[in-house]
Amino acid sequence: MAQTLLKVSGLKVAYGGIQAVKGIDFEVREGELVSLIGSNGAGKTTTMKAITGTLPYGAGDIEFLGKSIKGRGAWDLVGEGLVMVPEGRGVFTRMTITENLQIGAYIRKDKAEIAKDMDRVFSTFPRLKERAMQLAGTMSGGEQQMLAMGRALMARPKVLLLDEPSMGLSPIMVDKIFEVVKQVYDQGVTVLLVEQNASRALGLADRGYVMESGLITMSGDAKVMLSDPKVRAAYLGE
Questions:
Q1: Dihedral of alpha carbons 50, 56, 61, 63, sign
Q2: What separation in angstroms does the CA of 174 have from each of 82, 178, 199, 200?
Q3: pTM exceeding 0.90
């Protein structure tokens, strides 16, 4: 059985005086693509912020590579390979595409390997290569999403966390983003995908978890969940 890279146990997180996450358990094993689905306000993004060290958590624990991350900073976790593409992308709009990608590798010192990874990102995202010297702020939402994913890959993630990568994008660009997520996963990167688009997320994943009102209410094989009448009624409009 593959090694568990990320383990969440009894996690509770309060956000602005509200108990947003009420005691959840899930895990991500090496080589998996795991989807965490749920409607807006279910607590998915709060969970992601706790995992990446950008939001302190109360009860429970999060372990990455077998060690608790409690009290550790996001910069420290990135150095160990826990890397997130945030909701809303967060690209540096006044910097070029190339500069944004270089920032993804800011914790690394291996210049030759960084150059190889830059080539790999450009081959995964040809559109970024075409516009390498363009300012990130002049790109479309979908192109910025690709840039944010490319920047995260420059940190050589052991687990790549994607928070709502399809949000606000045109249907054509949503197709492209999910193609890229699959491509990254096929390259051997372990992925935790948080997504409101349940059918696309489960269609891509090995395993899935459903989050409702701060709790995990269902989990299992993603393809089985995709055909579950309860999941279909709640998230696929059937």
A1: positive
A2: 24, 6, 12, 9
A3: yes
Domains of the chain: 4-88+155-235 (3.40.50.300)
List phi, psi (to 5°) of 46: -60, -40
The CA distance from 118 to 101, in Å, is 7
Helix, strand or coil for residue 62? Answer: strand
Pick from 27-31, 71-75, 104-108, 123-127 the range whose average pLDDT is largest.
27-31
Please name which of 166, 236, 158 lies closest in space to residue 194, comparing C-alpha atoms: 166
Position 228: which residue type? D
Q: Which residues touch 91 (CB under 8 Å, ≥6 apart)?
A: 100, 136, 137, 139, 144, 147, 148, 151
Q: Residue type for 7, please?
A: K
Residues 68 and 161: their CA atoms lie apart, in Å, by: 18
Round the CA-based radius of gyration of the chain to a whole number and report it: 17
Residue 109 CB burial class (10 angstroms; 0-12, 13-18, ≥19): exposed
* Separation CA 86–CA 92 (nearest Å): 13
**Contact indicator for 160, 189 with CB cutoff of 8 Å:** yes
